[in-house]
Amino acid sequence: MRTRFQLALGIAVLLLGTAVGETQQLDAPFIKGMIPVDPLWNGWEGVPAIQATIKPQDQVRPWHLAPSIKGLTIKAVHNGTWIAFLLVWKDATRDVVMYLDKFRDAVAVMVPVKESTDIAMGEPGRPVLQFHWKADWQEDIDKTFQDISQLYPNAWEDWYPFVPGEPPYDITAWTNPEAQRYMTGWVLGNPRSQPQKRVSVEEQIAEGPGTVTTTPRQSAVGKGVYANGEWTVVIARPFVTGDPNDPSWGPGEEMLVAFAVWDGGKGEIGPRKGYVDWVRMNLRPGGG
Amino acid sequence: MANVYNWQIERQMEYPYEGARPKRQFAAVFDLNKCIGCQTCTMACKTTWTVGKGQEYMQWNNVETKPYGGYPMGWDVRILEKLGPQPWEGKKYVGKTIFEAAPRGEKVLGYLKEELDWTHSNAGEDEAAGTLDKGAYFTMPTHDMWFFYLPRICMHCTYPACLASCPRQAIYKREEDGIVLVDQTRCRGYRECVQACPYGKVLFNPVLRISQKCIGCYPAVEQGMQPRCVTTCIGKIRLMGFLSKPDEVKPHAPMDFLVYVKKVALPLYPQVGLEGNIYYIPPVNVPREFLRQMFGTGVDQAVETYLKGKDDPELLGLLHLFGDTKEIVETFTVFPEAREAAGFDKKGREIVRVPFTEPDYLRPFYDDARKVYRHNIS
Fold first, then answer.
1. N or C: which end of chain B has fewer CB within 10 A?
2. Pairwise CA distance, residues A39 & B41, whole Å
3. What averages of pLDDT result for each successive group of 10 residues across chain A (288 residues)?
């Protein structure tokens, strides 16, 4: 009887330990002036960091039991009206385009819109907001739209209907609406298919797995740079945008935030990802 | 996992969603004995649907040479190899479908096709794989050397693996005609569908960064017209129509007649478990073992029925309606006395009538009116 009691007690302590011990604290200090969107801003050095462990996505099929990325360094600052996250992780390959059998690197920040919710991208009635940085969008912005000429420099196509000019008929030549009808995702407004990308971060809302939707108002910005086998990415957003689904966050608040990271070169995309479980973030007072 | 009934393997099987057959099911029958691999269907599809950016490599319709050809390369042998042994007990398949064989944590057994897999769309397939230094190169009427052309489009499956695998329900099956589509606004280019489709019929567009597939020419089908690949076939090997639910067979509907009544048209790799809706009349010159693996256990009966077709006015008549109208033939009637077959549309209007035997017309070798000799007088 005593043994059984001890065992139960042991399990209770273990569970409690798991629940409390794994919730890391992220301090987001107040800074004066413009929010830094530059990953190489030297002010980041003085900002406290947490080293977060990456967990395998094993809640929604397809599972991803062995994520390629092992850890994520996280920092956050705010200036009273904007918040910025700095995310740094080791990745042996810089994957910035989508070939037929290759994916691109990405990282995302997730916050509950209101009350705490399911780590698996929220739940019905308890949505989450996500700010999803994509290496291919960054490449579109930093260089040029990753067209056939960029993806397959030796490819040759002598003709596309309704497209004037000469090969290689880059996307800028596709001005005729008749030609654009062949470009389904583009003309239907799918953000992935747009040749003119302005930001490398997509703002999304979700109420559970498979429900991720691009928000009508896109307020998040960001930038990622790759050097020495490491991605350094900033994702920033105003606290208040006027959107009814703005999270209840701001200076002096404490809230939950989670992260996900994808190594495109290792087949990671969508649910095939690693994630950082809820982190408790303290937004230090100031500037409000 | 839900349990659904798949008539092609004569049993219940696991599927991620509840079974819900559409009101009508897009279907087609391809007569492989008549395909000459001319690729007119491929070009018709290509020029209609896949001339955009990122679609350069895409063939929603393709024709490959069997046994060695494949687009994507080795699509069939690779999924069969992954599936392992595929035993049948009579008409019932007792092996695993790709849903039942899915590894732990996956919805479907599949694999991501590599870029090079898409680069051999029937290029070089017709060239001899070895020298013919061991005697007979042709001993008619049955020959040791065999091959056939396999034209393929999306199967618009009753239980699509692409739809099952999509983590965000961006793929849907239309209730009105059973056509399976990728929602071009919801798709995020995860390529789970590209991995899951055992037929390799969902393709990724690297410029638009979303996946695309055969749309069954739905704008034509909605107007009562057959798809482009069907109507342009110069060998007249194809007929598109609607297949009834297996327990509501209408013998005068062309698809029902060929698939359910005569059982002369068979599913392609039914053991994968998708209940695909493109049916094939198997080529009679091909070894039966190969055909059984490809089309299931109905092969022997299908070949016998087909070979006796000349004595079966209904079957012969319906086969004559292949490729003779652009409109969808909803029902057909055969007039054995007149040796004619007729097809009717949804309203019962006669849209096509063809004789079993084309009348002969003989013209003089020299054309007096035009003062020229004819090359062809019949």
1. C
2. 52
3. 47 43 86 96 96 97 97 98 98 97 98 94 97 98 97 93 94 94 97 96 97 96 98 98 94 97 98 98 90
Q: State the pLDDT at residue B146.
A: 82
Q: In the block, which residue shows the tokens 């020298």?
A: B131
Strands A274-283 and A25-28: parallel
Asked, for residue B234, whether it belongs to a domain, the answer is yes
pLDDT of residue B340: 97
Three-state secondary structure call for residue B291: helix
If one counts every other C-beta atom within 10 angstroms of the C-beta of residue B339, the result is 15
What does the block give as tokens for A142? 């930093």
CB A221 within 8 A of CB A82: no
Residue B268 in any domain: the answer is no
pLDDT at B140 over 90: no
Set of chain A residues whose Cβ sits within 8 Å of the Cβ of B54: 148
Q: Is residue B310 part of a domain?
A: no
Nearest-CA distance from A198 to chain B in Å? 16
- Cβ within 8 Å, pair A185-B205: yes
Determine whether the interchain pair B56/A157 forms a contact, defined as Cβ–Cβ distance below 8 Å. Answer: yes
Between A264 and B127, name the one with better pLDDT.
Answer: A264
Residue B329: HSE in the Cβ half-sphere, 13 Å Cα cutoff: 31
Tell me the residue type at A50.
I
Dist CA B53 CA A176 (whole Å) = 14
Tell whether the model's pLDDT for residue B339 goes beyond 90.
yes
Per-residue 3-state assignment (H helix, E strand, C coil) for chain A? CHHHHHHHHHHHHHHHHHHHHCCCEEEECECCCCCCCCCCCHHHHHCCCEEEECEEECCCCCCECCCCCCEEEEEEEECCCEEEEEEEEECCCCCCCCCCCCCCCEEEEEEECCCCCCCCCCECCECEEEEEEEHHHHHHHHCCCCCHHHHCCCCCCCCCCCCCCCCCCCHHHCCCHHHHCCCHHHHCCCHHHCCCCCCCEEEEEECCCCCCEECCCCCCEEEEEEECCEEEEEEEEECCCCCCCCCCCCCCCEEEEEEEEECHHHCCCCCCCEEEEEEEEEECCCCC
Cα(A27)–Cα(A33) distance, integer angstroms = 19
Beta-carbon separation of A151 and B167 below 8 A? no
* Interface touch B105/A212, C-beta < 8 Å: no
Residues of B in contact with A161 (CB under 8 A): 47, 51
- Per the structure, the count of domains in chain B is 1
Q: How many helices (H) and strands (E) does chain B have?
A: 10, 19
Kindly compute the dihedral angle of the four CA atoms of residues A98, A102, A107, A112, in this order, to the nearest 10 degrees: 90
At A82, the amino acid letter reads W
How many whole angstroms from its chain centre is CA B363? 40
Q: What is the largest CA-CA distance in chain B?
A: 79
CATH number of the domain encompassing residue B181: 3.30.70.20
pLDDT in tens, B55-66: 999 999 999 999
Q: Comparing C-alpha atoms, which of B203, B246, B235, B204 is closest to residue B4?
A: B246
Domain that holds residue B124: 2-247
Which among A257, A264, A271, A287 is positioned nearest to A50, based on CA atoms? A257
Interface probe, candidates B15, B48, B53, B183, chain A, greatest A C-beta count within 10 A: B53
pLDDT at B247 exceeding the cut of 80: yes
C-alpha distance from B14 to closest chain A C-alpha (Å): 15
pLDDT of A2: 44
Supply the pLDDT for residue B122.
Answer: 79
- What number is the average pLDDT over the span B160-169? 97
Q: Tell me whether residue B272 is in a domain.
A: no
Residue B115: per-residue pLDDT: 95
**Residue A17 pLDDT:** 39
